[in-house]
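Much of what follows relies on a compact textual record of a protein's fold. A record is reproduced here so that you can trace the correspondence yourselves:

. . .
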Amino acid sequence: MSDPLDKATSKAPATLGEGCLSRYDPEEMSPEDGTEFPGAAELWQQIKEEQDDAKTPDAPSSAS
């Protein structure tokens, strides 16, 4: 078995561009890079709904 600490390391995928134009190369990315997030759309919708609820003022109570 090789060094067990080798498993605890990670490396970034290859990049394209330089400086502020640097970005990950989509051709080099894979599921091992964590590029898939199947629940992203549902999470985004939930966050938007929570933010909308927080912005909407509560209806005034009719105290007599």
In short: The mean pLDDT is 80. The two ends are 78 Å apart (CA to CA). The CA atoms of residues 21 and 39 lie 28 Å apart.
